[in-house]
Amino acid sequence: MPLTREQKQEALADIQATLAEASTVYLTDYKGLTVDQANQLRRAFREADVQFRVLKNTLLRRAMEEQGGFDDLLDQLNGPTAVAFTNDPASPAKVMKKFLEETGGELPRFKGAFVEGAIYEEGQLDALASLKSKDELVADILGLLMAPINNVASALNAQGAGLASVIQQISEKEEA
What total of structural domains would you count in the chain? Predict the structure, then answer.
């Protein structure tokens, strides 16, 4: 049963709100997945805190056109399209790659992605999967910032221990 005009407007507003909140949008072709595989994939996306939805191409196209910045991705809106929305650029790619390895299949097929203003084309799923998450990047930066402080503290401890050892040796010689 086709959507009424009012339902289409509500769906369009919902898609626009989701696009505005998410910095990362992945387009996939899910045609050929069994119901069990589709449910398994949805579960994996949900566990990774990724919103995964099947949307009508015309509504998604309109929302993307009104939002702006998705022009290079619009060509991929043909055939069955499922969309992953998130703020972590790597998590959808990691979920898809793991799912493809586990099932040994070729579905879902990666169509393209919009990641914080950059467009990634069909063959770039591996590049996206190798990106670090925000938490991993923050941990790396903190580690780099903490390294000099740890080095200074270690150097001060080492000199203090060396000085205490010299004083102890001098006092032992004086007693003898």
Answer: 2
- Asked if 79 contacts 20 with a C-beta cutoff of 8 angstroms, the reply is no
**101-114 pLDDT per residue, tens:** 999 888 999 999 99
Question: Are residues 106 and 25 located together in one domain of the fold?
Answer: yes
Domain that holds residue 42: 5-131
Amino acid identity of residue 103, one-letter, is T
Cα–Cα distance, 173 to 3 (Å, whole number): 96
What's the pLDDT at 92? 96
| 16, 65, 57, 22: CA torsion to nearest 10 | -40
Which residue type is seen at 88? D
Is 141 found in the same domain as 97? no
68 — alpha (psi -120 to 50), left (phi > 0) or beta?
left
- Residue 14 CB neighbour total at 10 angstroms: 14
Q: Does residue 21 sit in the same domain as residue 95?
A: yes
Give the domain CATH number at 32: 3.30.70.1730
pTM, 2 dp: 0.77
User: Which two three-digit tokens encode residue 155?
Assistant: 């150097």
